[in-house]
Amino acid sequence: MQTWTKNLEKWAKIPFLARLAKQFPQAEVFLVGGAVRDAILGRPTKDFDFVVRGVNKNDLEKFLGKEGKVNLVGKRFGVFKFRPKGYMGEEIDIALPRTEHSLGQTGAYRDFKIQSNANLKIEDDLSRRDFTINAMAFRVVTSNKRQGTNCLVDPFNGLDDLKKGVIRTVGKPELRFREDYSRLLRAVRFACQLNFEIETKTWKSILKNIKNLNKKIGDERIVPYEVIAKELIRAVNQNPLWSIELLDKSGALKILMPELLKSKGCPQPKIFHSEGDCWIHMLLAVENLFGKKFKKEFKNEKPTPEVIWGAIFHDIAKPYTITMADRLRFNNHDNLSAKMFRQIAEKLKLSAGGLNIETVEKIINKHMLAVHSQVAAMKDTTLEKYFFNPNFPGQELLMLIFADISATIPPSGRPDFSSFNLLKKRIAKLAKKSKNKKQLPKPILNGHDLIKTFKLKSSPQIGQLLLALREAQLSGKVKTKKQGLIYVKKLIKVSSE
Predict the structure, then answer these.
(1) Could you report the per-residue pLDDT of 4-44, keeping only the tens digit for each?
(2) Most-buried pick from 114, 124, 140, 374 (CB within 10 A)?
(3) pLDDT, tens digit, 9 for 90 and up, residues 350-363
(4) Would you identify the CATH topology of the domain 2-164?
(5) What is the CATH T-level fold of the domain 182-431, as seen in this structure?
(6) What are phi and psi of 203, to 5 degrees?
(7) Which residues, other chains included, contact 163 with Cβ-Cβ below 8 Å and sequence gap of 6+?
(8) Any idea where the domains of the chain sit in the sequence?
């Protein structure tokens, strides 16, 4: 208890708050919301919100203007984005106490009438918030010395829910979700972010209302995909397995990306996949991104969000490509999986949540590289294309390949990493030709050189010649520009015979 109190009390020492208290003796200032929650949990936070009572909006604006830079974007709602002089962190929200009234209870996340009131009780301001753990305030400035300056205001028992590890709505779940259906995913996101359980009544209400994520008024979505994307990305990035389970059990996957659920019950050849169906394989691949073997292999480098999403979607097309010949086969599933991911990502606007869709698409498309190719016979130019190209996410591809292989369990129970290890050796051998181990030596000739020297016209032949020359250069057969010209001359002579 003392630890989190100290975490919160440090905010009372911000110089501009002391000056605010001196200029406005009647003022009360509260740190509210996520910053209070995270301080109690001992989690780092970048977002700080303060509520100021007892000071009218115009006076507060003038004061803040003297203390730093004020962004008036939320002024009409009684909210100021504020950066104190010399402060290097994120903008701080400074707000008057507010009430929100849903307009028609359509569930639109912006469908509120917001009123600010300098004299509104802090408890009334907290009552409009979504979950109990976000509905606490910590008083850092007050004129009433009898109350004590630093104390927690917790009208909805958020502290108890933090201790229990529970996500619970403020008041009736039905009302909270009907006010804003984006809170359905927000509950899942907080459960994943904090590794909490969702309280029973809140969960039942989520199950009842989840279909409203796709609700529309006319042609306009009640909850925009951009909002959905941000909640999905944050949930999955924080706790991939728990998020998949909650999104599945809540019905959100069925509503938002039903294609993924086709993996359930989709069989795989047991000679390669004793772990189970495509769904189980996917879950195991995601889980293995955080296992000891992965950490050892990649020297504690964490998988990026793109690798996580790549693992979730890498085999999504298997149910759509399954055929039975000599055994179960999924021809071209890697290419189709990449295309399906792109379609789903664009529909859900996942890029709005910060996910690099192009990177995910690329690594899904090539995740079978170590299987489809005989790695020993793979050309150096192919290795260069995928692992020494600044425009291709080679390291993330390796991570996805590793996760996929680690989740591919033959009857022996031991995943076969032989092709992966050989691929690594080929990459390492090629890297020795580079000083920085990331970019290989520049090509010794370019297309202009070939056109000028051999009087060639611009055509596909130029690219073919350069590719063959690059392969010879990387293999060590050609080392100088003069040798390169001789090599190309021979190629042209052979092709013309």
Answers:
(1) 777 777 766 778 888 998 899 999 999 999 999 999 998 88
(2) 140
(3) 999 999 999 999 99
(4) Beta Polymerase; domain 2 (3.30.460)
(5) cca-adding enzyme, domain 2 (1.10.3090)
(6) -65, -45
(7) none
(8) 2-164, 182-431, 447-496
